[in-house]
Predict the 3D structure of the following.
Amino acid sequence: GAVVSQHPSWVICKSGTSVKIECRSLDFQATTMFWYRQFPKQSLMLMATSNEGSKATYEQGVEKDKFLINHASLTLSTLTVTSAHPEDSSFYICSARDGAGQETQYFGPGTRLLVL
Amino acid sequence: AQTVTQSQPEMSVQEAETVTLSCTYDTSENNYYLFWYKQPPSRQMILVIRQEAYKQQNATENRFSVNFQKAAKSFSLKISDSQLGDTAMYFCAFMKHGTGANSKLTFGKGITLSVRP
C-alpha cells in the first residue's frame, strides 16, 4: 500500500514551452500533496503544498505564476512549469500525505526535467 | 521554525556490520513525528522508519532501529547487519502535527552511506 506515482519519469523540452507533471496517490486519498525540487547530492527543497479543492501554498521565493499547481481530486495533483528555461532543469519529486493512516508522507519516483 | 541537522555528510561501513547515523533537531512543538527516509541511486525516496514524539518506545523495523531522545532532541538511526542494498543517501525529517501546509516535512541535508563488500 501507500503508492505514489509520478508521470512522466523524465522529459526533455525546448526553452519557452510548458511542461506538466502529474502526481497520483494510487491506493489512498491525499488531501495534501507536496512538490519538491532536488539538485544532485542535495536535500529536497519544498516548493509548495498542494491542497485539494483550494489554492496551493507556495514557499518563499517560489514563483506562483511559473510553477502552477492544481489539486483537482483527492488522488491527483499536477505541477506545470510554464515557459520553462534551462535553469528550471532539475529533479522534481511529489509526495502525498496519508492523513487517514499513519500521518506519513509517501513519495513519487520523481521526474527529471531537462530544458534545452 | 523547525530545523534538522545531519552533521556527517558521508559514512562508510563494512557489509554485515552496524552503523549509526546521527540527527538532531530543534523545535518548540510538543507533538510531532520524526522520519528517516532512504534515497538510493534510483532517487526514489523510501520511508525507512517513523517515530511519534509522544511514544517513548524507540521504533524498530527489521534491521533498522532508532534511538529517540526527546529531551536532547536527538534521533539517530542504527542499521544492523548492513547490506550492499543499504547504500544510499539517508535523510532525517521532522513533521509537526497538523494539516495542510502545517504538515510539511523539514529535511536535514542528508548523509551518503556506502556499504563496502
